[in-house]
Amino acid sequence: MNGGGPAADRRKPAGLYVHVPFCLRKCNYCDFISLPIGRGGAAGEAAGAGAAGLIRPYLAAVRREADRRAPEIAGRTIEGVYFGGGTPTTLDPRDLAGLLEHVSARYAVDPRAEVTIEANPGTVDVARLKDLRAAGFNRLSLGAQAFQDPLLARLGRAHDAAAIGAAVAAARAAGFTDLNLDLIYGLPGQTAADWRATLRAAIALGPEHIAAYALKVEPGTPFHRDQATGRLDLPGEDAEAAMYEEARETLALAGYEQYELSNWARPGHRSRHNLLYWHNRDYAGLGAAAWSHLGARRWGNVRDVAEYVRLVEAGADPVGESEEPDPRRAAGETAFLALRLLDGLSLTEFAAEHGRSLEELFPGAIGRVTTSGLAALEGDRLRLTGRGLLLANRVFQEFVD
Amino acid sequence: MPADRPVAQDHLRNFCIIAHIDHGKSTLADRILDLTGAIAARDMQDQVLDQMDLERERGITIKATAVNLAYRARDGQEYVLNLIDTPGHVDFSYEVSRSLAACEGALLIVDATQGIEAQTLANAYLAMEHDLVLIPVINKIDLPSADVDRVKAQIRDVLGLDPDGVISVSAKEGVGIDEVLEAVVKRIPPPSGDPGAPLQALIFDSHYDSYKGAISYVRVFSGSVRKGVRIRMMATGKDFEVTEVGVFRPALTQIDDLPTGDVGYIAAGVKNVRDTRVGDTITTAERPAAAPVPGYRKATPMVYCGLYPVEPTDYEPLREALEKLQLNDAAFVYEPETSAALGFGFRGGFLGLLHMEIVQERLEREYDLDLVTTAPNVVYRVILTDGSVQMIDNPVDMPTPDRIAEIQEPFVKASLITPNDYLGPLMDLCRDRRGIFVTMEYLDTTRVELIYELPLGEIMFDFFDQLKSRSRGYASLDYDFLAYRAGDLVRMDLLINEEPVDALSVVVHREKMLPRARALTEKLKEVIPRHLFEIPVQAAIGRTIVARETVKALRKDVLAKCYGGDITRKRKLLEKQKKGKKRMKRVGQVDLPQEAFMAVLTIE
Fold first, then answer.
1. A376 at interface of B, judged by CB pairs closer than 8 A
2. pTM score over 0.80
């Protein structure tokens, strides 16, 4: 299946994702797999108490999974490595360095690869960041989210606004020249002025990359419970849309190019690892809840950290769910993932990859999305219009069944 | 198992069980089946006679079913009992009436903790009209809150029945069941009827079997019927050859001969469902009866709604499904109808709202059809200025005001039985629904029966839920058609995106026009999803807009995050969104969800 498709093409670059499911505390909006280990951090692990006690076995399990998976992706050049979480930097930098070294020895990581680690303000200082930089991490993604202490508190973040500036300064001092700040809008209690101030504060810190996400209330989170009981004062659809427009204008004015629905970068600083996802390329995911996409198959590891450890220790495959999208679905995914990018979808590349044209596979779709003004066809490229950016699902729906 | 034929006519007993909903009718039927060994223990499941999935799920009986039982009485003789189960909900009094016509007696079940409720009274009166012998049975005596003496007093004072004849049972615990069966044998008379006379078999129900064709459930009033006989349907004059006769045990069980007085089924390869009409009499072609059995009153649909396929290609399957459903449900009527907004569909007529819901649910479940159903309405009687009269079962057919001399709406006589604590709130409710107070009567020191005359159209707007919530679930309701009465009624149209949507038109009382117009447009604004453009929602009387709301244009529909771990989940989300849109009905440029057509029911 997909013999000539992109996924199986061994010459195409691939990515490597490592999930670190630990953090200081659980945020009120977070539905990621992550275990709060508290302020004691990794120090608590000696006592083997609770989640902290899982750190050692978990790191060992990820190494073992890396060994196991290495042949599956052998010979593929890894262009992007990404340590995400949780908050990877809640762990000891030596452990993170050790893990990076372990995977680098087993995968063909390009020497110029983008190697990102996620961090939260308050979990990093110059010394720790220097260790990480020295270990080979060359991009730091900081979860700033907002610059108002009340909003940060409402989000359940473990840091205040001042800690963001401190973290950026520390990152610079440690030699990171590729820095991302994550921001969230549409927060409960957030005003248009708050958001404007957040954008300005972020820009003032001069990161190379900014990601701005609309808050999504996920089932199982404290926010979801608040919403169910009517205690979540979200700004609403129209205000959120206005905040998005504000971000687009403000960031453009400050010299950030929007290259994806929620991502902006200074020229030359787009995230190469994340671009692999939007180009529907292959990636291996290691750790609990990590997803992999190799060839025609996509799978996710079990979400429970203890279960993940148990399975790997027992020599079993820790996969929890997996699917093999049929060629039509895979083609639809290529389309809607690429349409997330402001560069859009190249119709010739699409046809070359999937053996059939977009129009053949989804008759009339291009006509409908362009007529509605949500997308435009410029030469060979189909891309979202300004209005389409906010109504992207209406376009994407054309490419699923 | 019942001894096979022949059974002497004087050893036959035909009876049914009537009760208010939830008073334990189906449980008692189960126990009777247990005791007579009609069903092997391994086949026993709760509510044996409620065969439809829907009946079991809702815990109610919708259709009448029959079962043929053998019982050795204390006198040492073997009797054959035909038990006919009946529905307990107000909508289905018509089905009750059909079952009663096949019986000589009835068990009247009353809950020992609740006492007499509205359908207890209604069903008891119905049985009395049919000259049935009534055996009062007080059920649930095992419950701590049972008050047998109080309920006995009610039975004496309200129904005028002898309290000494009351049998106390616990159907759940199986207590007192043999007393009930003895009473059936001793107190209910055997069927009369001349075995030598020409065949007269009354069809009281039917169902469609894909192999045997239409199967008629009959009570034989005279003569007998067996395989090979040519029968004649007296209403249509059509003849068929009998392929099988049998009884219900409760599965259809073939026997040689269905004699006078017995209850059973006749299959005759009837392929056209219209040829076996419930209420018709079957006789033989060779020696036809002089006259049909006096039937029972024909079911009059009280409530109508539009039934449309979501996909136009489902029109034909829908037509076939309706035809089959009607065979199982004689009270349901339908005819083709065309809506400018919804295309080709049907207008269905129902006994009441529950009946309507059940038909809709059966169509979707048993026939796997996606339907759009419009809000139900009553039938209006319109006197035109030229003196002619029109019956209007769809608001959109209402003539223009200049041609109308008078609009009449159906009124019902409603009986509400409630603990006296809730009298005030219930009287407020009736007054609010344009009810006219008739009388109030104490059934005992705490329970009161209220009689109101109410427009049926008002009962459809969430009346039953209000009744229950205002009485904490303790009040019960029954009603019967009373008369058509003139009312100050107007037709209100709804415009979506400047286009009138015929399927949304309603008839409202002028006094309530403005609040209802506002509530309806607000509700529609709530249920119509945002589109890529702004959608005005307007209510109009004639050409005058009386209320307006706007569904604002969709601003934002985007998944902010999509990384490696999200792709499968996000694609599924998109697929789900798209499927949701497909289930909506496109009217002009606007996708309307099913809730939009029901909006009028959920306002207030």
1. no
2. no
